Amino acid sequence: MDDARRVTISLPTQPPTGQQPTGQPSGAQPSGARRPAARRPAARPPDASLVDLGPIAQLRAGRLGRRLPQLYIGLVLYGVSLALMIRGRLGLAPWDVLHVGLTHHIPLTVGQILTVVAFVVLIAWIPLRERPGLGTLSNAVVLGLATDATLALLDSPGDLAARVALTAGGIALCALATAMYIGAQLGRGPRDGLMTGLHRRTGWSIRLVRTGIEVAVLLLGLALGGSAGLGTVAFALAIGPLTQAMLPFWTVRLDTNQTSPSQTSPSQAGGTS
């Protein structure tokens, strides 16, 4: 038998050109090779959000060149939307049922009643420790003027289809107007402040407080002769979702670096003025 010989075979450490090492997928880098650094996604700027600032901080938060026109256009459109629903004669929002009901007993226009009620509600802010801003006071005045001006120019149609169109248009316009004036972040409306103030003082949910207030003013308005109907139901069902859908497009990003952290907190967006 031949003697066994030990044969040593040297294997190449690198594969021949054009070949991949056994078990290594095509396109993979050899073991030990430095991999290129992963590309980080571009930083996304934070979305604009509603903040709760004091009256002075609201004015110091910047972008007044956009916020002031947006505030006043929104308030005018809100008054127009109220007038559209009044002329539609298919039912009003709960607070507006009260406003119209009061006109049967007080010799004032709807717009004047709206302004008077707004300032009465502002008195209720005092024990609730709510602080009115520029938008709050403007809300109390501009809505009434815009409502009366629109009512003076617009008659109520007799055709049902036209009345439905006025009511539907009023609800949609009210949602847009609400998103605009809330998104300007220059102070909540008197009725919204009553809602948020009661929420803070009682600890009850926003939904519970708002429902309680609106049911109370609706019943009072009906007792005074105000009109409710299908428009009232449509408003209650549609105003929240419509406003929520439009609000992100109208919320102005503020420079809150100039305010103290204690002044900034999430704010609730309501569908009332």
UniProtKB/TrEMBL annotation:
Source taxon at top rank: Bacteria
Matches recorded under InterPro entries: YczE/YyaS-like
Stretches for region Disordered: 1-49
Keywords assigned: Membrane, Transmembrane, Transmembrane helix
Extent of Low complexity compositional bias: 16-35
Presence of keyword Amino-acid biosynthesis: no
Chain segments annotated as transmembrane: 68-86, 106-126, 133-154, 160-182, 215-239
Entry keyword annotation includes Secreted: no
Protein name as catalogued: Membrane protein YczE
Taxonomy of the source species: Bacteria, Bacillati, Actinomycetota, Actinomycetes, Frankiales
